[in-house]
Amino acid sequence: MTTEQEALLLELINNPPPGSEMAKAKEFGFDLTLFHSTLRLTTTERARALSDAAEIFEAQKQSSKDNS
Amino acid sequence: MKLEDTIRALYDEGVEFILIGGAAMGLQGSAHVTKDIDICYDRTPSNIGRLAKALRPFHPVLRNAPANLPFALDAATITAGLNFTLSTSLGDLDLLGEVSGLGTFRDVLAASEKREVCGVPCKVLSLEGLIKAKTAAGRPRDLYVLPELRALAEAKRKTGLE
Fold it and tell me: A48–B159: do the CB atoms touch at under 8 Å?
């Protein structure tokens, strides 16, 4: 992500143009700031983040089972 | 879910596949979290053989099926079926021969983009393809992610980010 791209993205996140898909998503309740985290990652980093999140999900699921 | 290992195992065996569903969303930059991997696979006999061979080391069984139900994910089984929901030692894996809203492997391929994961080339369903598929699936959980996917597509279009 270049400095210019980041500035553009932050502008879209902070001031989504009325009627835009960004504005609609924000109105729907989606946290647009998440894009600032995800879009700066490479595809490989996104893949690792997905695997890590799934692992945490599974650990929590197992913990809930063990405690019930 | 071991996404990188799954992609590498399929690639190493030469399987023609496209990453779809939640994992494709994540690779496209969505913040959505998923616990399974969905792929669309080419149903040519040679590819089905490669798919069965690639997954064999990971002990695929039908997910949520009785433990004593006889099942072997071999070429004959894949040929006789179309979509499979599996548990493997790599995590939950869904194999789809067709995708609603898009069609067969060739149609999904036309809606995919080439990416690289851990140095391995991988085809990933595009945001436009994901939006079509989620719209067609029409379940509440599919419709729920549409605002994010549309906003993500717009953000990428306007910034030139991948």
Answer: no
Q: Cβ separation of B26 and A32 shorter than 8 Å?
A: no
Phi, psi dihedrals of residue B121, rounded to the nearest 5°: -70, 140
B107-113: long-range contacts, CB 8 A cutoff, minimum separation 24: B108/B18, B108/B20, B108/B40, B109/B18, B112/B18
- Across the interface, which of A8, A24, A31 has its CB nearest the CB of B158? A8
Q: Which residues contact B94 (CB under 8 A, 6 or more apart)?
A: B21, B36, B37, B38, B39, B83, B84, B85, B86
* Single-letter code of the amino acid located at A28: F
Q: Which of B150, B147, B108, B110 is nearest to B127 (CA)?
A: B150
Neighbours of B2 (CB within 10 A): 19
Is the CB of residue B132 less than 8 Å from the CB of residue B102?
yes
| pTM for the structure as a whole | 0.92
Condensed to tens digits (0 to 9), the pLDDT of residues B95-117 reads 999 999 999 999 999 999 999 99
- Is the CB of B118 less than 8 angstroms away from the CB of A12? no
